[in-house]
Every structure is written in C-alpha cells, then in structure tokens.
Design brief:
Elements lengths: L1 E6 L6 H15 L3 E6 L7 H6 L3 E4 L8 H12 L5 E5 L1 H10 L7 E6 L10 H10 L4 E4 L2 H9 L8 E3 L14 H11 L6 E6 L9 H12 L4 E6 L5 H11 L5 E5 L4 H7 L2 E4 L8 H8 L4 E4 L4 H4 L6 E4 L4 H12 L2 H18 L2 H13 L4 H17 L1
Helix pairs in contact: 1-15, 3-4, 4-5, 7-10, 8-9, 8-13, 11-14
Amino acid sequence: MKIVHVVESLDIGGLENVVIALARAQRARGHEVRIVCLWHPGALAASASGEGIAVSSADKRPGFDLRALRRLRGKICDDGADVLHSHNPMAHYYAVAATLGRRAACVLNTRHGMGSGRLDARRERLYRFALRASDFGVSVCEAAQERFVAHGVIPADQAVVVPNGIDLARFQPRDEIASARLRHELGLPAGGTLFGTVGRLNEAKQQHLLLKALRQLLDGGVAASLVMVGDGELRGALEAECRRLGLEPHVRLLGARSDVPDLLAAMDVFMLPSRTEGYSLALVEASAAGLPIIASDVGGNREIVKDGLTGVIVPSGDVGRLAAAMKALAQDAGWRAALGGQGRAWAVREGSLDAMCERYMALYARRVPVETQAAGGALQRAANRRS
C-alpha cells in the first residue's frame, strides 16, 4: 500500500514520535510510506528521512493559505495514495480539501488528545465537515472517543479507538543496580523509595502536588526521594517550591533527557498527577519498565493503570490521597513488585508499537482493495529475500 501521513510538523513531541514510529513499522512491513508536514518539517524530520521515510512540507503560512493547499495536493496526489492518514484536526481538514476529486481508498484521522479546546470552535467545525469525506475518526483512548462522540465531533459510526504504542525493546524492567547508581550520581539518599515522573513542567502536569505529597511523606517518617524528568515554563517555580518546603536534599529536577528508559529502570514508583491527559505514553513507558504507578483519575489514565492491579488511581488535585498512595507503596516492596510485574505484562500485551501498527493496518484493510494489500505483502517478501 501507499500510505501518506499528514501532520502539522515533525517538531519534537509525543504525536510526532508516534507518527514516525508508525511509519517506520509500516515501511518494515513492505509498504510505501511518506510523511507530509503542513507547516515546516521540524526537528525530527531528519531522523525520519535518515530511516528512509520520505518527508516533505507544504510550508503553510498563518491563516488560510491557498498556495500551501496546492502544494499539499501535489505532495499527496502526484505519487498516489491508497491511505491518507492525518493526525489532529488542522492536518485533516487541509488534507481532505487538498485531495478533493482524488480521494484515497481509505481516509482517516487520529486525534491524539482529548480536544482540550472549545469543541464548537471554527477549527472543530471545519474538522467535522472534513469527516464527511472520511472513513474513520480515530481516538487514542476510550475516554477521548466518548467525549468526541458525545459532543458530535466524531459520528458514532465512524468512531474507532486505536491506543498509541511504544517500542518495548527500549525498556527494561527496574534494576536495583541502576537505582543505586542513579542515587549515587545525583547525591540522593541511598535508602528509601525513589519516586519519579516524566513530563513537561507545566500547569497541566501538576508536579507541584508531588512536592507537597513528598513533604507529607517525609514529615511522617517515611524515607523517600523524587526525580522529575522534563523541562518547561514552571521549572523555576518548582525549584522555588523545593526550597520553600526544604526538599533540596530529596528532590532532583533533571531537565530534558535522552536516556528516559535508563532513568525509569532506576525508579521504584512512577507518578503522574496531571489535571488533564489523553492517552499518556509516559504511563505506557513506565508500565513497560515494570514500575508500579500512581496516576490521577483523568482522561485515559484508567485505561493504562488498572487500579489495584498495576497501580493506584487517585483523584486529581488531592494531595492527601496522593501522599497516602505513596506511603502505602513505600512501605510494601512486595506490592510494588506485584503491581510492576502486572504493568509490564499489560504493556507487552497491549502497549507495543506492533499492536498499534496491526490495529491501523486492519483498519486500512477495511477500505483498501485486497489486491492492493497483496502488493504490499509482495514488497515485504521481496525485501525479506534481499536481506
């Protein structure tokens, strides 16, 4: 099959990494895959191109840009497309408009979040109109799908859920040696429970709640430390809060890191106290690392963290419940191991890149002619023989 993914750009971000990973997996299966950026290529474009994935851009300017629409039409249509797969609203309605009269066999869009803005905004109206010329509106979690269908954004007969997946080979279960090494490198206490979180330091992630809960834990005589991985506009405020609460000996803000799998392997418990989430890949990655998880009850978190089985779900914004969950896990290493093991098993079964790719390929197959699918299989078999 000829598969074209349309994104706003390939700037650094979760959506963009998912699209590249999906394109890579589809190419490995013998399909011809291209990524077209509506705006500019972005920082991740070079790595995608280096893996043999064709990347181009329409160089859209702010506002309605007819020339960008024409460029987009050429980049999608000139080489043909069996599948037109766009990601998020703007990429979709531009892609559909650009291909009028030259529709691909399968046209679908994936919404990679919960749609946090107003669902009656102009962009959403354009998106709903574009879905009339589409086959599927994909959400990445059940909670998002329920929201979009309830508000009339995605028609119920077009609504499908395909959770995002990760490359499981990058993540190894927690390791005691790695934990001891990281504590030594960071100058953290050797004993106690090492809690951790990964994500942008912003208001939606509510990392300040972790600091307040950690203070309660320490005041109650429970030995613990905390590492925060990620950067963002609230870093200065979080550092000031650490000082105010007297947490400097117990907390490290590590900034953006490229070694997240290694850092996860050194943690004892993963935490995500967000105010809002879609389908959090940070939680999938923590599960793959075999970590017990404490997460807020928002968005798709319950679809990843099974309360009492792979982690603990707490009300968003409730510092007391957050601290209580931390204390319970800190005091029971056996429970931590059991939760983490179940989380790892879930990730292997449900959270892999292969699982995501197979779900999308099955979706494409509902519209793409069988003979076209067979041609993709022939390409894969030829590639396998050459290797």
